[in-house]
Please model this.
Amino acid sequence: MVIYADNAATTQMSATALEAMMPYMCGQYGNPSSLHSVGQAAAEAVQRARENVARCLGCRPNEIIFTSGGSEADNQAIVSAAKIGERRGKKHIISTAFEHHAVLHTLKKLEREGFEIELLPVGEEGNITAANVADAIREDTCLVTVMYANNEIGSVLPVADIGKVCRDRGVLFHTDAVQAVGHIPIDVTENNIDMLSLSAHKFHGPKGVGALYVRQGIALTNIIEGGAQERGKRAGTENVPGVVGMAAALDEACRNMDKNAERVTALRNRLIAGLSKIPHSTLNGDKNNRLPGNVSFCFEGIEGESLLLLLDAKGICASSGSACTSGSLDPSHVLLAIGRPHEIAHGSLRLSLCESNTDREVDYMLETIPQVVEYLRGMSPLWREKISGNKQFILR
Ligand SMILES: *Cc1c(COP(=O)(O)O)cnc(C)c1O
Model:
């Protein structure tokens, strides 16, 4: 038995998405830029996909740019807003300390180009308020970029309130909504969002395709130069099967959102309640204000990597943080941002669920994870020293 509990890293593609893509993988192979019938059939498929994605987000089809994924959308949104700001002599950008690296590394690059980057602290619950953003906005602020929901600890940020503040103050607002789209309701118009990034493989669509919503009238800067695809804003022959699959997956996710969220939240809450009973453990992020599928814990006295390997051997696929940082020895920047000390941040575990996980799988995880944590602690001389009272516990 293999239990997949790493849906924040990627999801299984749905049968609906696969089925929608199949014709465009082989039979309908036209290039949407071609003027003949075969090309135009592909162009129409891309247009239908654009209309579908727009409907799910509450925007117009011509406000959707297809990209190679969430990372590219983040890069293009942030660089575009920076260029707009620069032309007006505004070079101050506000973000948070626990963004995805696609955002943080783009901001680092802009900092080297002379922009001033202000990363708001997110506090122990892993959140910020619209008032925090309002206080940070200055005359020369050109962009606020704040994620919709955090990929490691699941916090859902008050994006609608932040959007309102930014609109009132005339500052562009981008949100990395890669973890939120398809999972929680989003309306870019109601929420005053100027730019939003999404990625298909986080909601049961294919990998390597995503989209950037950009409100009409905001001038994009190209990341990829070449042909005139995507209104000249993103060159390269369209990933026709990809965008068709993404639209089908998003449509399905949005139609079933309430039902899925209710089911996944119930599984999540059982896991949180059960794992909280492990001594010297702590939940990361807020208990209630979090993504339906996110469970994130720190266990004192263990190494997250060892925990993952042992869980894998027992058929549980989990993560210790973001897939992008695993492989490096630095603890997650997200856990450091919420104030977890290094040694605690190293003992982290993220389980991210989807609607195909079952109660039986949760039972198995609740049986297995406490045993594995105890086993690892038993092997650690440091932990034995702590237990014998020579050292202080950090967690409870
Ligand atoms: C996965 C993820 C990304 C990157 O998306 P890709 O399509 O894999 O490039 C960006 N931001 C967040 C919050 C993510 O979870």
